[in-house]
Write a structure and sequence with these properties.
Layout: E1 2-6, H1 13-24, E2 27-30, H2 31-41, H3 44-54, H4 61-72, E3 81-84, H5 90-102, E4 109-114, H6 117-125, E5 127-129, E6 136-138, H7 165-175, H8 179-187, E7 191-195, H9 200-219
Parallel strand pairs: 1-3, 1-4, 2-3, 4-7
Antiparallel strand pairs: 5-6
The protein binds adenosine monophosphate (AMP).
């Protein structure tokens, strides 16, 4: 099984991708994590990617595709991959199809987690951090016991600059899956919309049901 999880930030995509990979015994591959590791290791690739990441822009397709292909050529990726954060452009989607076809494989489904913009802004802009110990709170789902204060050390909580509502909206515009890429998968009957505004467990249930449906379709 090779599956893609698509959706803007704030949809719970990364958490769901990890859960699904665990359940299916597949490898979770997140290009954001691969880039962050490359930056940490101080590699040439990391240095190149960092320029773009710091500006919140996409790393060029050729760099991203080469890095991703290196990862999925490894032995642990041969029985299935859950792609998280890749593809982000039509060119990446086409390149992935070509690479998998060369191995007699295919993307079985592109699972698109959708959440209304206002809800995403509410989720991301409700995140508060303790500047001292780094604890993370969420106004709606995981509030501190005393408003604005860290449960562990009592410090006043702060909001990250890029979690302020206006910045979240701008990030959302830049990081939304492009229509041409969604149309590409939709045109091949591989796009499945999943309601990401539900509780996380319900999102997982819907994802697993759609994966089951895709597997049945392929085996028939
Ligand atoms: P993420 O953790 O998915 O939000 O990714 C962090 C950053 O890594 C993004 O803002 C991009 O700069 C870069 N990145 C991750 N995946 C891709 C991709 N498929 N194409 C281009 N850039 C990417």
């Amino acid at each position: 099984m090779n599956l893609i999880l698509l959706g803007p930030p704030g949809t719970g995509k990364g958490t769901q991708a990890r859960l699904i990979a665990d359940r299916l015994g597949a490898l979770h591959v997140a290009t954001g994590d691969l880039f962050r590791n490359a930056v940490k290791q101080g590699s040439e690739l990391g240095a190149r990617a960092k320029e773009y990441m710091d500006r919140g822009e996409l790393v060029p397709d050729d760099v991203t595709i080469d890095m991703l292909f290196d990862r999925i050529d490894q032995p642990d990726a041969q029985s299935g991959v859950i792609f998280d954060g890749f593809p982000r452009t039509l060119q990446q989607a086409e390149a992935l199809d070509k690479a998998l076809a060369g191995k007699g494989k295919a993307v079985d489904a592109a699972l698109h987690i959708t959440v209304p913009d206002d809800e995403i802004v509410r989720r991301l802009s409700g995140r508060w951090l303790c500047p001292d110990c780094g604890a993370i709170y969420q106004e709606q789902t995981q509030p501190p016991i005393k408003a604005q204060l860290c449960d562990d050390c009592g410090n006043e909580l702060q909001q990250r600059d890029d979690d302020r509502p206006a910045v979240v909206r701008a990030r959302l515009e830049k990081q939304r899956p492009p229509t041409e890429m969604l149309d590409y998968y939709r045109g091949q009957n591989r796009l499945v919309d999943i309601d990401g505004a539900q509780a996380p467990d319900d999102v997982t249930r819907d994802l697993l049901a759609e994966i089951e449906r895709a597997t049945t379709r392929i085996s028939n």
